[in-house]
Amino acid sequence: MPVPPTPPGPRPRIAIAGIHIESSTFTPYRSSFEDFEVRRGQDVLGRYPFLAPGSDLREAADWHGVLHAGALPGGVVAAEAYAAWKTEILDGLAVLVEQAPLDGLYFDIHGAMSVEGMDDAEGDLITAIRGVIGEEPLVTTGMDLHGNMSDALFAGVDLLTCYRHAPHIDTWETRERAVRHLLERLRLVTPGTPAPKPSKALIRLPILLPGEMTSTRVEPARALYARIADLENRAGVTDMAYLIGFAWADQPRCSAAIGAYGDDARAVEHAVLELATAVWQARHEFEFVAPTGTFTACLDTAIASGERPFWISDSGDNPGAGGADDVTVCLGELARRPEVLRAEVSVLVASIVDPETVRIAHETGVGGIVDVRVGGTIDTRAPGPVPLTVRVEATDDSPATGPAARLRVLDADRSTGLEVIVTARRSQFATSAMFERLGLSMTGADIVVVKMGYLEPDQYDAAAD
Ligand SMILES: [Zn+2]
C-alpha cells in the first residue's frame, strides 16, 4: 500500500540504528571491527534503496541515521566491538532525543548476533535503546527469518516482520515493508504526538531446525510461509513473522517463533495461533534439502552419477551461517582420491578462505607453480592445512572476495582433475558472475564442492544433481 501523500506541517522524525550479523557460537572464528561495514550519520540512509532521495518513503519523514554495522555471517562478536557500537548508538539517539522527541526507530538487525559473554545481544541493545528514546516511539524491524525473538526483543519492538524466503530473495522487500508499515502508522497522528501502539502476539515454539531443513523451496516450509499472505490479509492484522530461529548458537532464545501485529488483538492472536499450530503439526516433516552423507559417500555417489555437474555442499562449514570457511575435510580427501588424481573426473572446490595462499599465488603469478598449504588455519581442528603443489590458473581481486586465486592441483608435475579457489575473505561463490571472474563457469566441472546451507538461485539452476 503506498504511503499517503505528505500532509503539510512537520514530518515524523525517524531514527535508524542497528547491528546486523548472524554469528555462530560453534566456530572458532571471532568477528570484530574489521569484519563489519560501519555507516554513521546520514550515510546510514545510503544503505537502503527504498530511501533513495526523491523516493516516497524518503520524502515522508525526517530520517536520522545513527549507526549501522553490518557483516557477513561469522563467529561470536568481540565484546569490545559490540560495546563500542552500542555506546555510539545510545549517544547518537540521546542527541536526537534532546533536540525533539522521536516518532519512530527503524531497528535494522538480523536477529542472530552472538556477542562474547551475552545470551541475547539484540534484546540487550533494544532494551538499552528504549532507555534512551522512551516507550512512545514506534520501533519497527525487518529481520532475517534465521533470527531469534527473545522476550526482551519482543518487548522492545512494536512492528515486527521477517523474510519469507530462504534463499533470501526478499531481503530488501522485507526491510521496505517494515519501514512502510511504520510510516503508515505514524501518518495516523501529528508528528510529536505518540502514535497508537498495535496489538502484538508471539508464540515461541520449542523447535530448532537448521537452514538446510527449512528452505522455502521445499515442503513443508514452502506451504507454511505461503499461509502468511492469507493470514496478514485478515482485518486487524498488519504483518506476520515466522522465524525459523538460528540453530548455530547455544543460547536459550534460539527457537522458532511466530509473531504478528495489527489493530485487532483477537485477530492478531488468532493468526499467530493458527500459523504456530500449523508449524507445530508439521514439525516432523522437515527434511534436508538434499541427500546427506559423509563426504566419502557423497563423493562416491557423485563420481558414479551420470549427472554433470554434481554439486556437493560441505554445509557444516558454511560461511553463510558463520562457518570458518577453511575446514579442509573435502579438499584433503579430494587430493588423495585416485580418480581425481588421474583426472578421470574434474572437481572444483569453490572456495576456501586462505589469505596467505592467495598472497603467494598473486606473487607467483598466473602460470607459475608453487607449493602451498591450503586452509585449516582459522578452524585448526583436524585435518588442518593441506599441502599441495599447484599451478596458478587465474587471479582476481573483487569486492565480494578480496584477492582470490584459482589453483590447479598437480601430482608429480602432472595436472590432476582438481582445482581449488582460495580467497582472502570468507566468501560464497553464489553467482555465475563470481565464477566468470576467474575464467570458470558454474557448469564446467564434473563435480563442484561448495560450502553452502542450501544452494542460491544461480547454483540451484546450475546443479544437475
Ligand atoms: Zn538467513
- Major sheet: 7 strands, mixed
Bound molecules: zinc ion
Number of DSSP-assigned strands: 19
The averaged pLDDT comes out at 95
Strand content: 25-35%
Secondary structure class reads: alpha/beta
Would you identify the regions where 5 or more consecutive residues have pLDDT less than 50? none
Shape: globular
Overall radius of gyration: 24 Å
Number of helices: 13
Strand order of the largest sheet: 13-19-14-18-17-16-15
Organism: Brachybacterium huguangmaarense
Protein name: M81 family metallopeptidase
InterPro entries: MlrC, MlrC_C, MlrC_N
Pfam families: DUF1485 (PF07364), MlrC_C (PF07171)
Q: In terms of topology, how is this protein built?
A:
Blueprint: E1 13-20, E2 23-24, E3 30-31, E4 36-40, H1 56-59, E5 62-71, E6 74-77, H2 79-99, E7 104-107, H3 121-133, E8 138-143, H4 151-156, E9 159-162, H5 171-186, E10 199-205, H6 221-232, E11 239-243, E12 256-262, H7 265-281, H8 295-304, E13 310-313, H9 329-334, H10 338-341, E14 347-353, H11 355-364, E15 369-374, E16 386-398, E17 402-411, E18 414-423, H12 432-437, E19 447-450, H13 457-462
Parallel strand pairs: 1-5, 1-7, 2-6, 3-6, 7-8, 8-9, 13-19, 14-18, 14-19
Antiparallel strand pairs: 4-5, 10-12, 11-12, 15-16, 16-17, 17-18
The structure holds zinc ion (ZN).
How would you describe the overall organization of this protein?
Helices cover 28% and strands 25% of the residues. The protein is globular and about 75 Å long. The chain has 465 residues and is an alpha/beta fold. Helix 6 packs antiparallel against helix 7 (265-281). A hairpin with a 3-residue loop joins strand 16 (386-398) and strand 17. It has two domains: 13-281, no CATH class; 295-462, no CATH class. The strands form four sheets. A seven-stranded mixed β-sheet has the order 13-19-14-18-17-16-15. The two termini are 41 Å apart. The mean pLDDT is 95. The chain contains 13 helices and 19 strands. The structure holds zinc ion. Residues 144, 146, 168 line the site of zinc ion.
